[in-house]
Amino acid sequence: MHHDPDLQRQAGETATKNKALAMLKRWRWFGLFVILPSLIGVLYFGFIAADVYVSQSSFVIKAPSKQSANLTSIGSLLQRTGLGSGQEQSNEVVGYMQSRDALADLSRKVDVRAVYSSTEADVFSRFPQPWHDDSFEDLFSFYRSKVSVMPDPVSGLSELKVQAFTPKEAQAINLGLLDLSEDLVNRLNERINEQSITEAEERVETAQKRVREARIRLGAYRNSTRILDPQQEGMGVMAVSNELITQEAALRAQLSQLQRMAPNHPSIPALRERIAATRQQIDSQTSRAVGTTDGLASRLSEYENLLVEQEFATQLLNAANASLEQARVEAEQQQYYLERVVEPNLPDAPTLPNRMKSILAVIFASLCLYLVGWMLAVGIREHAPES
């Protein structure tokens, strides 16, 4: 039987096409979910993705060591400078670097929009990205993805990393942020010093008012009682009373002697009258000192309270003045300062993207997605009802 070679060739080609179509149909999902994304990843990260340079720096917020002031115990209570720890200041600086204000201030020094819209970058890396517009909010979101600050709460050291598409631009943004942060620390110092001086001045004013009121009350008391110092006057009264008691004792001794030696002596009645008059004077002096509500003893308690209040108010004023003077001295000094531990470097080679790692990540993610879909499809087929 004779076979036509053309028919045989056409049959072979048809069989080959059918096998190829069957294979394509069988592996179509693998090619769609694994091979195609992997080829795109190789193409993008291997040949299209722009180089990214990272400039790094480190800084710490420090405060000068404070020596204890030579103040009284009251002064130590009044010494409220309003200063926080250096860690708190560092947190404020970190928060500022990641804020919209930092981006707005930095844009006055460096054209951030132009830096991240550089022609050195590919269309998916530069700003604005295809899914963004050219607004400030989108620029801020892009800025946050390129600038990171990592504080270390243990050492107080903070590390600043800035990504850009050229080494000089990455370094320029890093330097600009550090300069702005130093300005922020200086403003915080000024605010702290102003607050400290204001509070100290208010305490001085309050203490002065208290001293004036204490002196007015003490003067009013002296005018109303017509007594300059009840304690001194009481000592004078007691001195007179003691002298009268001595005189009375002498007169009684004289009377006793006369009565014993000459009971009918004509001077005995006069002597008794002198003793009675002396006793009356002693009782009068004693009543001035004690025994009545207007006595010097009762007035002395009120006087001592007023005197103690005046002395305490005076000590409080002296301590407040010392606190104010110390606040003014500290205001002339820098309370906190930003120290650059590592200056912003000029990167000599791109560190991002990690091309091989990114390609492998795309392949791994594609395989995982394919395997999950395959397992779901197998499960659905196994539980599908038989027709």
Automatic annotation (TrEMBL):
Key words, A-Z: Membrane, Transmembrane, Transmembrane helix
Protein's UniProt keywords contain Membrane: yes
Gene Ontology, cellular component aspect: plasma membrane
Membrane-crossing segments per the record: 29-50, 359-380
InterPro entries from the UniProt entry: Bact_polysacc_biosynth/exp (IPR050445)
One Gene Ontology MF term: protein tyrosine kinase activity
UniProt superkingdom: Bacteria
PANTHER family: FERRIC ENTEROBACTIN TRANSPORT PROTEIN FEPE, TYROSINE-PROTEIN KINASE
Protein name: Capsule biosynthesis protein
Source species of the chain: Aurantiacibacter xanthus
